[in-house]
Amino acid sequence: MGHIDVVSEREFDDPVLVEGLPGVGLVGKIVADHLVGTLDMELYATVHCDGLPAAAAYAADERGVTTPVRLYADADADLLVLQSDVPVSPDAAEEFAGCIEGWFREESVTPLYIAGLRADRDDDDAEASPTLRGVAVGGADGILDGLDVPEPESAGLVTGPTGALLAHALETDLPAVGLVVDSDPQFPDPVAARVVLESVVEPLTGVDVDAETLKTHADRIRRAKQQLAAQMQGGEENISQAQQLRMYQ
């Protein structure tokens, strides 16, 4: 039976959770990895949910192994990060959502789900900030009202694992925020990740996310994430993404 194994007890007060499942542009993955590394976040819990890949993850200069999906915490900032080293299927995401729903409610966790919207950026607007939009379920609208995050300008869908998590939140009336950001359709996109960090995570939590380093080390980050991006090619159903709905009269 699936469960969350807490390995480091911490007290929270209505924490925010940043979801980092791999998706278009690996935006959520880059955001999660950056927060864990920059804030030196502590491993809070390992995730053992039915449907997740059976794998063991290990880190450089360490003997131990852990689960490929896990939670990190900064209790002072009431911030949790879901870090994943593997693509997760939508079916597994549904199992995962149900697996941790009770814990979400018990700790009053509000998740921030991140989805990349495929958008080509040419050389003329390569330095421009990608557009970020926000949606909410379960009464979480107030979180976005205090941020400079507009509503979507057109209809769309969030699919893949992140779409499954948002759908579960809608079905169970669990407060959750969905962030949709224009992202590179083929390559890891640290620029889009920087927008999420600066526009949402930093003002919401009050932590210094040092997002400027994402711009400084953009090429290195892209190379580091390229292998995971290649693994995801051809597995569209496993990729979290937003897509616009075309309306025809």
Helix/strand/pairing category: alpha/beta
List the domain count as a whole number. Answer: 1
Q: What share of the residues does DSSP label as strand, in percent?
A: 25-35%
Strand order of the largest sheet: 1-3-6-7-2-8-11-9
Can you identify the CATH superfamily? PAC-like subunit
CATH architecture: 3-Layer(aba) Sandwich
Number of helices: 7
Give the termini distance in whole angstroms.
Answer: 49 Å
Classify the fold: give the CATH topology.
Rossmann fold
Mean pLDDT across every amino acid position: 86
CATH class category label: Alpha Beta
Q: Secondary-structure element sequence?
A: EEHEEEEEHEEHEHEHHHE
Radius of gyration: 17 Å
Description:
With 249 residues, this protein is an alpha/beta fold. The protein has a single domain, classed as 3-Layer(aba) Sandwich (Rossmann fold), CATH 3.40.50.10900. 34% of the residues lie in helices and 25% in strands. It has helices spanning 27-38, 90-107, 141-145, 160-172, 190-205, 212-216, 218-232, and strands at residues 3-6, 16-20, 42-48, 57-58, 65-66, 69-74, 79-84, 110-118, 132-137, 156-159, 176-183, 241-244. The strands form 3 sheets. Strands 1-3-6-7-2-8-11-9 form an 8-stranded mixed beta sheet, with helices on both faces. A two-stranded antiparallel ribbon has the order 4-5. A two-stranded antiparallel sheet has the order 10-12. Strand 6 and strand 7 form a beta hairpin. Residues 211-245 form a coiled coil. Keywords: Coiled coil, Proteasome. It comes from Halobaculum saliterrae.
